[in-house]
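Lecture notes, part 5. Sequence design as translation. It can be helpful to think of inverse folding as translation between two languages: the language of shapes and the language of residues. The source text, in structure tokens, appears below.
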């Protein structure tokens, strides 16, 4: 899809009104972080984060997005909550939530994805103001980086 100049300017203006970040709770593989990071950059994210990292550090960022948006790593949920931006709604992405097609994204949002093998913990879900699920034809279980990309794309489409 080619974006004309006037449409591109409108997208930029809308995204400057708010902000969002996206992160993964107890992420298992670094390649998912790299994929999510690249998608976050493309979709206008202010930053990405991990909570309770379980993977060894390695380079999987092919477009050097670290030059454009930060990656923060928090040891646990408490550390994350102490650093959360004021006024941002914490939105969990999990299989038992409001369908994404009916969800209205807030201007200031923090999206929290669950680990590839275990999803969001009950503690993490209880701290979210909203829980959103992604519809599917067969099963609602998506790769974590793909799920994040779908949510960010939906945000871009509905806020622009």
């Amino acid at each position: 899809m080619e974006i004309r100049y006037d449409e591109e300017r409108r997208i930029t203006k809308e995204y400057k009104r708010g902000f969002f970040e996206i992160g993964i709770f107890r992420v298992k593989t670094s390649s998912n972080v790299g994929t999510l990071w690249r998608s976050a950059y493309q979709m206008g994210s202010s930053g990405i984060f991990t909570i309770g990292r379980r993977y060894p550090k390695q380079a999987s960022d092919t477009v050097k997005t670290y030059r454009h948006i930060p990656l923060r790593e928090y040891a646990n949920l408490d550390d994350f909550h102490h650093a959360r931006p004021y006024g941002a709604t914490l939105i969990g992405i999990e299989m038992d939530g409001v369908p994404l097609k009916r969800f209205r994204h807030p201007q200031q949002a923090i999206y929290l994805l669950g680990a590839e093998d275990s999803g969001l913990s009950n503690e993490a879900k209880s701290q979210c103001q909203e829980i959103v699920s992604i519809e599917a034809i067969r099963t609602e279980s998506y790769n974590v980086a793909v799920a994040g990309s779908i949510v960010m794309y939906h945000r871009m489409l509905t806020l622009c």
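The translated text above is only one of many valid answers, since several sequences can fold into similar shapes. DSSP finds five helices and six strands in the chain.
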